[in-house]
Amino acid sequence: MDKEMQNSSLRIEHGPEGSVGGGIRKNLDDDGRPKRTGTWVTASAHIITAVIGSGVLSLAWAIAQLGWVVGPLVLVVFSFITFFTSTLLADSYRSPDPITGNRNYTYMDAVRANLGGRKVQLCGLAQYVNLIGITIGYTITASISMVAVRRSNCFHKHGHAVKCQTSNNPYMIIFACIQIMLSQIPNFHKLSWLSILAAVMSFAYASIGLGLSLAKVIGGARSRTSLTGVTVGVDVSAEQKVWRTFQALGDIAFAYAYSTVLIEIQASQHCCYIFLNFYRLDTLSTILDPRY
C-alpha cells in the first residue's frame, strides 16, 4: 500500500485541458520538469566530445608500450566493457518500465531506482572515485600538453641543444583554477554549443595527430616496433617496462570514459532513448509507441 502511494505521488495529475496544477504544460515534460530540447545533433556532439577526448592523444604511445598483440587486444576488451556498461545504463534510464517508467536523470537515480539499499552508497563511492580519477587524468593531460607547447616554442627560439625543462605543476594549478571558475557558471550543462565546439576540436587534434604520423612515415622515418612493445634491456629496464605497461593500461582506460556521462546525455535528449539504443531490436516499438 505504501509503495503504491509512493508511486502515485510520482505521477503528475493532468488537468482537463492539458495543464499541470492549472498552468500550461507546453514547456513541461511528462514528469513536470522543463521540456527536453536536445536532438541527435547535440547528443552526437556530447558523445563525440566524450569519446574522442584528450584520452586519444596517448593511445599511440600506449600501443607502442604494449605492442601489436596486447595493445589492440586491450582496446577491443575496453570497447566491449564500455558497450556493455553503456547498454545497462541506457536501459536503466526509465524504471521500472524502459518506456513508460519514471526517468532517472543521473547515475545515482538509476542505481537508487534499480538496486537501492547499501548498493547506492557503494555505487556512489565507485562513481566518485572514477570521476576523481578521470579529473586527475584530464589535469595531467592538459598540463603535459601546455608544457609541450612551451617546450616547442623554446626549441624553435633557442634550438634543440637547449634542454628547455619546464615543470608541469604551475600548469596543473592554472588548469584547476580555470575549471573551478567554469564550474560556477549556472546551467553549464545546457551549453550545447560548447559540446559542438569541443567535438570539432576533438576531430581537429585527432586528425592533426594522424596527419603528423603519416607525414613521418611517408617522409622515410623508421621507428622500431615489435609485437611485444618496448624491449627490456634495449629500450627500457625491467622496472620501466612494468611501470609503462600499467601506465599504458591506464591511458587506454582513460580514453574509454564515455559511459560515465551517458545518462546525463540521455536525460537532455527528447530523442535520446531511440538514438542511444538504435542497435536494439525493440527500438522500432519505441519509435512507434505514442506514449514516449
In short:
With about 290 residues, this protein is mostly helical. It has helices spanning about 1-10, 40-50, 60-90, 105-115, 120-160, 170-180, 190-220, 240-255, 260-265, 270-275, 285-290, and strands spanning about 20, 25, 95, 100-105. The strands form two sheets. Strands 1-2 form a two-stranded antiparallel sheet. A two-stranded antiparallel sheet has the order 3-4.
Description:
The chain has 292 residues and is mostly helical. It has one domain (37-96, 103-284). It is 61% helix and 3% strand. It contains eleven helices and four strands. Helix 4 (107-114) runs antiparallel to helix 5 (118-158) and helix 5 crosses helix 6.
SS-derived structural category: mainly alpha
The Cα radius of gyration reads 24 Å
Overall domain count: 1
Main pleated sheet: 2 strands, antiparallel
Beta-strand segment tally: 4
- Average pLDDT metric: 76
Q: How are the SSEs placed, and which strands pair?
A:
Elements (H helix, E strand, L loop, with lengths): L1 H8 L9 E2 L2 E2 L15 H12 L7 H33 L2 E2 L6 E2 L3 H8 L3 H41 L10 H14 L9 H27 L19 H18 L6 H6 L4 H5 L6 H6 L4
Features:
11 helices; amino-acid transport; two-stranded antiparallel ribbon; 4 strands; about 290 residues; single chain; disordered C terminus; Amino acid transporter transmembrane domain-containing protein; mainly alpha
